[in-house]
Each structure stands twice: as C-alpha cells, then as structure tokens.
Amino acid sequence: MVQMRKLLFSLFLILFLISGCSGSEFTSHPESALTLLEKEQPPADFIPKDLKVVSIGDSLTQGVGDSTKSGGYVPYLKESLEGLDAVKQAEFSNYGVRGNRTDQLLKRLKNDDIKSAIEESDVVIITIGGNDVMKVFKENIYDLNLAVFNNEMDKYGDRLYELLKLIRSYNAETGIVLIGIYNPFNTWFSEIKEVDEIILNWNRLSEDVLEGFGQSAFISVNDIFIEGKESLLFEEDYFHPNDEGYELMAKRMFEELTERETLAELTQSEFIVREEGLE
C-alpha cells in the first residue's frame, strides 16, 4: 500500500511538471531552447565553402585602366572575400567587355558559356549603364538637355529589367549585385550642369528596378569618384578608374557585401562575417 502511494505520488508529480512546462512559462521563452540548440551546433563558418562569382558587364568589369590587366576590381575583391573564415576560395568568372551597353550585354547573356556560369553561380556582379549614358551624350551632342536623358533613362530601365529577368531565369537562387554608375563626364562635358543629377536619377532607377527581383544588392560608388575626382581616373582617358580607383571600388563592395550579413542573404547560405572576439 505504501509503495502504491509512492507510485501514485510520483506519477502525480510527473504530470504536474509536464502540465507546468506546457503552460505560459515554457512558451514565453522559446529563444532559450533555440539558443541552446544553436550552441550545440558547429558555427556557421566552421567549414569554409567555395564562393562562385560571375562578373558581367562593361569595361569596369573587364578592368580597363587597370595597369596590371588582371580584371579591375576583381583581384581586390577576391582577396578580401578569401580573407573571410567562411570562404575557402572565391572563384571569379569575368565576362566584362569594354563599351557594352545594356542592349549588348542582354545579347551576350545568351552565350552558352555565360549562361552555364550563371547557372552554377552563388553571386552575379554587374557593372552596366555608363555606356548607355555616354550614348546619349554622343547622339545629342548639339542638343543636350535633361529631357533627352530622362527619355532614354526609361528605355534603359526596360532593358535592365529584361537583363535581370534573364539572369533570374538561369538561376533563381543566385545573389545579384548591381554596381551603380559614377560621373566621369564632367571632364568631357563640364559645361552641362545637370550631369550630377543625371547620374543620380539613373542610379535611383537602377536600384528601383533591382528591388523587384529580391535577393539582390545595389552598391553605389559615385561618391568615391566625387571625393577622389581625377586622382582616381585612368590618365589616358580620365573616364575609367585607375588602380586606386578599382581598389576603392572593391573595398566599398566588400564592405557592403559583409555588412549585416548581406552576403549570407544574397547566397542563401552561411557566409557570415564574425568579428574577432564576438559571438
């Protein structure tokens, strides 16, 4: 009888504890269990991963103005990315062609090699738009006004949309990074006061178009060249970046990609930057 009472008491105690755990006190602290679970797992960057990056676009991707002829911003960004604990190797495929506009890049994207590279990529980085603006300058040299640029900007937006849509059709999961255009035009068209406004408007449109595709990032570099002025431009044309210009571009790109775990979000993976000494 005594043993039976002890058994019933034990059973009652177990039921009481279970009912207590299923009440508000347990459900109000779900993060405690999650945190414990996370602590039992290896850190996200425990096993470094290869990062496949496809660079497409114009002369800024090709690296015109780069004295080393090694791809402009690419080697600088590659070195920085490979400095992350989570990245074993950053593999870049460079498909930049000098002079490319959005319409020309759209045609080149149908090339089998580029298509295959994008299909296998974690991130696609694009530099485009500068030559679209230059085309407006050249075709309207004797009648340049803001309305002309705004009219062409709308067409540029349509082409950019088609370009991004094609990339997404190749790879629905790749991160898309679009680098904004900068203003080297004051060197050539210093009498046109609206050039800064034109660049600002085109960059805003690019960012707006990009937002519709998700898992993407727009990176502005225009302020770098405003502050550096001609000291960051290639002396042979004062249009393309020089070595320092490309290095600063790569630095900005790396900062933006690693801020607030942007790279992890773009790749839907675990490329997380961990500052030394922080959890």
Q: What letter string, H or E per element, gives the SSE order?
A: HHHEHHEHHEHHEHEHHH
Number of domains: 2
Rounded radius of gyration (Å): 26 Å
What is the CATH fold-level name of the largest domain?
Rossmann fold
Mean of the pLDDT scores?
Answer: 80
**Between the first and last Cα atoms, what is the distance in angstroms?**
56 Å
Largest sheet: 5 strands, parallel
Strand content: 5-15%
Helix content: 40-55%
Number of helices: 13
Stretches with pLDDT under 50, minimum 5 residues:
1-42, 272-279
Strand order, biggest sheet? 2-1-3-4-5
User: What is the strand tally?
Assistant: 5
Describe this structure in words.
This protein has 279 residues and is of the alpha/beta class. It has two domains: 2-40, no CATH class; 49-267, Rossmann fold, CATH 3.40.50. Helices cover 51% and strands 12% of the residues. The protein contains 13 helices and five strands. The protein has helices spanning 2-21, 24-27, 30-40, 59-62, 74-81, 102-108, 112-119, 130-139, 146-170, 195-211, 222-228, 243-258, 262-267; strands spanning 49-57, 87-96, 123-127, 175-179, 216-219. The protein has a five-stranded parallel β-sheet, sandwiched between helices. α10 (195-211) links the parallel β4 and β5 (216-219). It is globular and about 60 Å long. The termini are far apart. The model is unreliable at 1-42 and 272-279 (pLDDT under 50). This is GDSL family lipase. It comes from Bacillus salacetis.
